[in-house]
Amino acid sequence: MPETESTLQGADVELKDISKSFGGTHALEGVSLTIGRGKIHALVGENGAGKSTLGKIIAGAHTADSGQMLLDGEPVRFGSPHVAIARGVILIAQELAIVPALTVEQNVFLGVEPRQAGFQSRRELRRRYRELADSVGFELDGAAVAGTLRTADQQKVEILRALSRNAQLIVMDEPTAALSRPDVEALHVVIRQLATQGTTVVLVSHFLNEVLELADEVTILRDGRLVQTVPAAGQTEQSLMAAMLGRSVDATFPARRLAPAGAPTVLSVRDLVAPGVHGVSFDLRAGEIVGLAGLVGAGRTEVARAIYRANRVHSGSVSIDAGTEGRGGSAVAGTPRAALRAGVAMIPESRKEQGLLLSRPVKENVILSTLAAVSVAGLVKQAAERRTVRDVLTRVDARGGGLSAPASALSGGNQQKLLFARSLLRDPKVLIADEPTRGVDVGAKRAIYELLASLTAGGLGVLLISSDVEEILGLAHRVLVMRGGRIAAELNGDDITEAAILGAAFGSGERGA
Amino acid sequence: MTQPQAAPPAPEQPEKQGKPEGAGQPGGGQGRTLVPAALLGPQVLGKAREGGIIYPFLILFVVLAIWKGETFYGQTNLLEILDQQSATLIIAAAGTMVLIGGGIDLSVGATYALCQVIAMKMAITGNPVAAILVGVVIGLGVGAANGVIATFFRINSLIATLATSFVITGGAALITGGNLITNFTATGYADFARTQFLDVTTAAWTMIGVVIVLGVVLARTIAGRYMYAAGSNAEAARLAGVRVQWIKLVTFAISGGAAALGGIIDSARVLSASSANGGTALTFTVLAGIVVGGTSILGGEGAIWRTVVGVLFIALIGNGFTLLGWNPLYEQITLGVILLLAVGGDAWSRLRTG
């Protein structure tokens, strides 16, 4: 394991005081670190801690707002991945960037194909591919169509592509998140091999055991700030997790009212199986906020979408208004339209892609699910519409723009409130809020918390999905922690702690995938 | 502008001349062309960028009025334009719904021909009202079939309707055997388009009625809102409880019905029908009118009053070329440039607003 001195001497990458914000949120604040040549350097932290952002800044996919990056002691500023690639710095993102219809070798040499008089030379392509694949010991058929390969092999294609560009530094963002165990082992071998051959690897990973197994050094981030950079040797999952915890409370949460003991069950989910969901059962009572916690990709959004019938459901049942015993009630089946009818409303994960009609006026966005209530014989009554929309916007405290302004003109927080307003007009029994505060400023966050609290006081059951553990701790009466498409733990009352949530989410010692 | 109004100018011209200007019509001679626009979108006119096509239209109108005087703004000429554009306006109004809903219908020219051929053929021997109804219903059916293919079978509507347009044209040609069908005897059918009421032909009255109804449906009803929602963000609309596929299917059905009605009106105006009528020339004239009017080809944005102004704008250009005796070859070039400007302006404003 590397000593501090040697790391400092052979420095390949040095980051000084890197800051980056998206909109009003600080993703990174004053992060400085050094990554040694030929080392495997892991970046760890909770969701939203800034580890992916940091990886992307190193590889030029994001540009830092301030700070400096030195590559081999020389200041560089990557305006785009293209520039970074020219300097041998390559990002392998979570979403793979292969062209499915091309063969493996065509993918590997995409854009730098060997040419003869303007034509691709297949023979030369094959020869160069063989050479490259042999040099890292990959057994991957160059003529295979990339789209037919398993994810692990597709990842190898990306790695080969990186190597074909003479990569000095490869940033891997969650490379094993989508892989099965044998493939994970195989990829680990490859990563180690890269390092021994002198390539520096920056590994962004959720999996602490993987980090401990592979990395020479670990940088721990929390809320966009550097906690520490330590040699991996001597660390344990517990010590890493402890370093990731314990951040400051910067948003105040409304006082949590206890859910009434005898409150009826409003949502009852039994053995739900759907894409990304492998058998989930739970109840939600009136006036209760149940937090759905877990890592990105653990299946939280998938559960929400399955309940709302935005995704296909393979088996299992969802019923609304199930009464005190959790039996009976009306079943949810079919489409989101049917789910709305049954009394479920959902605020989707991505307000821009799944929530709003960005180019349409505010009022049309808000009234979209309840047009019938302001219409007579199919004709929308303009005055009734404006009155209804204005009232509900006051209720959710949305400001700015006016009713006829396009939704795109509003701030993130107000856009989110439009979606709350749309849901509230349905007067639902169950509200699913998927990352309701993502990308909104602190003030709007607080307003949304207040809103959730007041809604539950009125008897609404809320299923809250959040990657912000703080938010779950501050709002939820009960927490379900998901891992690998299943509920890994249910936490009640005093058991709801950050350590317990993270412990269950990371699966302490076992892999989630 | 080429096909539908170029073909039939001769027959009805004499009948129109007699009456004095503005006898009983609301708005009088030159205002009449603007009536649908003013009716359908007063609130939209207020917004700055939204004005769009209305200014070039007014400028062109004034220029032609000054240049050619009464020859242009006289009742005869303006009513003539309106009468000639009836079919195009009906089809374009419906096409606006398709575009706003996020689709595109390239089969309207073919449906226009098929339905006029069927209706004409039936009218020669049978009841003209039944013939017209059957024609329109077949148009609705063809449109619905397009809709099913484009939504439930998830085939891109551009390709789907391109493919069905070949099928439809082939069907029309089979019916006629490639011949022109004429009908100078059963006058009931011709009366459908050529009857005059308050100086205006029934073709134009039908158009005005259809445009107003479709305009109200789009701007004022739940279905209209759903069309905008489906075209603006289909996934968001679905999650908000909108039956996106259904609403898109409805737009295609309306488009097919409108194409049929347009085809029947034109065949009644000129007393003949042919499987070679309409076709791609009509399809693209209709699309040009919609797009010049300012309805986005990307869906979710636009209005029927815009389409009315867009179609009439193109018609005025054609009319201007005729009145001024300019080489009609330049008309095509002018139109092409205007279309590029319209689409370019749309793309540019989207770019700026993100």
Describe this structure in words.
The complex is a heterodimer of chains A (513) and B (354). Chain A has 513 residues and is α/β, with parallel strands linked by helices. Chain A has 3 domains: 4-244, P-loop containing nucleotide triphosphate hydrolases (Rossmann fold); 249-343 and 428-513, Rossmann fold (3-Layer(aba) Sandwich); 353-427, no CATH class. Chain A is built from 18 helices and 24 strands. In chain A, strands 6-9-10-3-11-12 form a 6-stranded mixed β-sheet, sandwiched between helices. In chain A, a hairpin with a 2-residue loop joins strand 13 (265-274) and strand 14 (277-285). Chain A is globular and about 70 Å long. Chain B has 354 residues and is mainly alpha-helical. Chain B has one domain (25-353): ABC transporter involved in vitamin B12 uptake, BtuC, CATH 1.10.3470. Helices cover 75% and strands 2% of the residues of chain B. Chain B has helices at 3-6, 9-16, 28-31, 35-40, 42-45, 54-68, 70-73, 75-100, 108-125, 128-151, 157-176, 187-194, 202-220, 222-232, 234-239, 244-270, 279-293, 304-324, 329-353, and strands at residues 181-182, 196-197, 200-201, 272-273. The longest helix of chain B is centred in the C-terminal third of the chain and has 27 residues, at 244-270. The radius of gyration of chain B is 19 Å and the shape is globular. The two termini of chain B are 34 Å apart. The chains are: A alpha/beta (513), B mainly alpha (354). Chains A and B meet through helix 11, helix 12 and strand 20 of A and helix 14 and helix 15 of B.
Task: Give a topology summary.
The complex is a heterodimer of chains A (513) and B (354).
Chain A: H1 4-9, E1 11-22, E2 25-36, E3 40-44, H2 51-58, E4 66-71, E5 74-76, H3 81-86, E6 89-92, H4 104-108, E7 115-116, E8 119-120, H5 122-136, H6 151-164, E9 169-173, H7 181-196, E10 200-204, H8 208-214, E11 217-222, E12 225-231, H9 237-244, E13 265-274, E14 277-285, E15 289-294, H10 300-307, E16 315-323, E17 330-331, H11 336-342, E18 344-347, H12 351-355, H13 362-367, E19 375-376, E20 379-380, H14 382-395, H15 412-425, E21 430-434, H16 442-457, E22 461-465, H17 469-475, E23 478-483, E24 486-492, H18 498-506
Parallel strand pairs in A: 3-10, 3-11, 6-9, 9-10, 15-22, 15-23, 18-21, 21-22
Antiparallel strand pairs in A: 1-2, 1-4, 4-5, 7-8, 11-12, 13-14, 13-16, 16-17, 19-20, 23-24
Chain B: H1 3-6, H2 9-16, H3 28-31, H4 35-40, H5 42-45, H6 54-68, H7 70-73, H8 75-100, H9 108-125, H10 128-151, H11 157-176, E1 181-182, H12 187-194, E2 196-197, E3 200-201, H13 202-220, H14 222-232, H15 234-239, H16 244-270, E4 272-273, H17 279-293, H18 304-324, H19 329-353
Antiparallel strand pairs in B: 1-4, 2-3
